[in-house]
Amino acid sequence: MRIISYNVNGIRAAITKGFLEWLTQANPDVICLQEIKATVDQIDTEAITKAGYPFQYYFSAQKKGYSGVAILSKTEPKNVVYGTGITSMDLEGRNIRADFEDFSIMSLYLPSGTNFDRLEHKFNYMDEFQSYINTLKLEIPNLIIGGDYNICHEAIDIHDPIRNAKVSGFLPEERRWLDGFMKSGFIDSFRHFNKEPHQYSWWSYRANARNNNKGWRIDYHLVSEPMRSRLKRAVILSEAKHSDHCPIVVEID
User: Fold this and answer.
1) How far apart are CA 144 and CA 148, in angstroms?
2) How far is Cα 116 from Cα 53, in angstroms, rounded to an integer?
3) Which residues contact 140 (CB under 8 A, 6 or more apart)?
4) The whole model's pTM is what?
């Protein structure tokens, strides 16, 4: 089974840049989207169905043109859960989960910390999300959380770890949280297969960063430990350019 996660930075904009043609070629079984920046009535769901994804689930933010996540699937899940039940998280449309026969997939868009208020919100979200997942794993041990975590885990995951040491997304407290989250029972599927540096999933639009590969790896498929033996492959699709992020792939048995 091939699962993709992709922060599209606006699904309508991505579609105008060839997203659906790319999706047909990439042909995942399931794709998790983040930052869709639209409500379902604003999305060409018929075109997405024609691309091979009749089962579409959207969880939009209350604020128009902001945040929002989705899951598109070739097959129908047994169950779909919109949000976490935690109001501060759900107002911004940051979590949606699809339960399949013997595992579940979540699309996650963790907040960025671009200013002090948002950084405080991000830390609160991280703490609440950890507690939520700790409980969820008791019910659903086979869990894949794909999405934009807005955190680089280690120095290898960012082009300039020294200059960015005090920038949100690479703060020691954020990295410590992500490290602890992984150690609570999740595998960084990409690093499970790939140890090489200079592998990124997001580039600033400034200073020709993408062409110079001055990026950050902030998108992950974290796979729960009980699924370790089912991991087959994980890659970053850096050639796809419908967004400031690129898609990431994990394949499981």
Assistant:
1) 13
2) 39
3) 99, 103, 104
4) 0.98
Cβ 4 vs Cβ 25: under 8 Å: no
Point out which residues pair with 82 in neighbouring strands.
Answer: 96
The DSSP secondary-structure symbol of 158 reads B
Helices (H), 169-228: 172-183, 189-193
Strand partners, 220: 147
Residue type, 75: T
**First-residue to last-residue Cα distance in the chain:** 6
CA distances to 94, 123, 188 from 149, in Å: 11, 12, 12
The H or E element spanning position 89 is helix 87-90
* Residues annotated catalytic, as ranges: 148
Q: Yes or no: say if 152 and 201 are a contact pair by the CB < 8 Å rule.
A: no
Tens of pLDDT, residues 175-220: 999 999 999 999 999 999 999 999 999 999 999 999 999 999 999 9
**Do 10 and 37 touch, CB atoms closer than 8 A?**
yes
Q: Which residue, 15, 95, 90, is CA-closest to 57? A: 95
Give the chain's length.
253
Q: Where are the beta strands (DSSP E) in 76-225?
A: 79-82, 95-99, 104-109, 143-148, 186-188, 202-203, 215-216, 219-224
- Supply 68's token pair: 């929002």
Please state whether beta strands 186-188 and 143-148 pair in parallel, antiparallel, or not at all (unpaired): unpaired
Confidence label for 116 from pLDDT (cuts 50, 70 and 90): confident
